[in-house]
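Notes to self after the Tuesday call (sharing in case useful).
The group wants a holo model before anyone commits to mutagenesis around the pocket. I volunteered. Ligand is pyridoxal-5'-phosphate. Logging inputs and output together so the record is complete.
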Amino acid sequence: MHVHYLDHHATTPVREDVASAMIPFLTKHFGNPGSPHAYGWAAEEVVEIAREKVARVLNAAPREIVFTSGATEANDLAIRGVLAAYAAKGRHVISAPTEHKAVRDLLRHLENRGDCEVTWLAVDGAGRVSADAVQAALRPDTVLVTLMHANNEIGTVHPLAEIGAVCKAAGVLLHTDAAQSVGKIPVDVEALQVDLLSLSAHKVYGPKGVGALFVRRRHPRVQLEPQLIGGGQERGRRAGTLPVHQLVGLGVAVALADADRADEASRLATLRDRLEAGLRAQVPHLTVNGDRVNRLPHNLNVSVAGVPGDALLTGLKGFALSSGSACAAGDRAPSHVLRAIGLDDDLAHASLRFGLGRGTTTDIVDEAVAAVAATVARLRAETGWTDAASNGATR
Ligand SMILES: *Cc1c(COP(=O)(O)O)cnc(C)c1O
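Result:
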């Protein structure tokens, strides 16, 4: 059975043009960019081209880009690196409970070890924090604010430019995990006034295992203590032989995603609206989670009263969908993001996350609506669920 892929927040297929750009750097041009001969120079040249491509998309300078193994490592380097470099100023960090686990669990780990103290800002019912809340949480010993650009479960986009202005005025560094926003909405480090920014290739039709951290060098020059020490690569900021083919893939994928961004975003938003309208029309007592305005174009997260989320997913075998995030899918705990925006355990469990992408068509969306409607009706009939039982489930 063909399974329609609607889980583009978890990962995306590598584009053919990205894959073919990578191949020669596995087999033919295999040099180590650090080597002092023709093979090394050829490798170094393409690595610097990839760096320019990433920098251009972010409106950054190439020297401000540090290559990493993905967004997880970029987040880790940003947070640990800043905490270590600014220890004399303090160890207070401001974040929010809706962060991806790569930030949230890292901060909790560092908190438990006594390496930092975290203020977890409350989010509103749509999953947003306000610049005023950030302002109010600032302290003399605050060294870092870390807030994701766009949420990987509900698609909510934080008001980063306003938060950036608050941080800048206070002289506090702002890091953002932009793994979900790059290639989907404009990401400009000057407009957003961010000092550090993480991204990942495999969320934008590039290969897994590679990403980058933007580290501002001017106004202010961000200090970062390296976490991987060794060969001195990346100007001493991240040691390890550069994975040339992966970096070629990253550069091409990010550049292509940015070139297609406006057209693809409007196409996906139209499909997302069709999906949302179809589900609202055909599935009674359906809640849409997230922000109505400040949202990613390709995300739709819904909760369906009266059905268990895992039974829903089991009933939707023709679709690759997720309930909550991919990383949380293995465990039975309800999504921490849906809990943070105020959903009870039942509704948080009974959620579906749609992530539309390049391969998604009108037909697939229509099939998904019909399949969800039929599955929900069947499960509700099986469990004898009635509207009366859904006290306050609609909003
Ligand atoms: C996917 C994702 C990550 C992890 O990125 P990797 O490159 O897989 O390490 C981190 N943050 C967010 C918001 C993501 O969506």
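Two things stood out.
The two ends are 36 Å apart (CA to CA).
Residues 150 and 181 are 6 Å apart (CA to CA).
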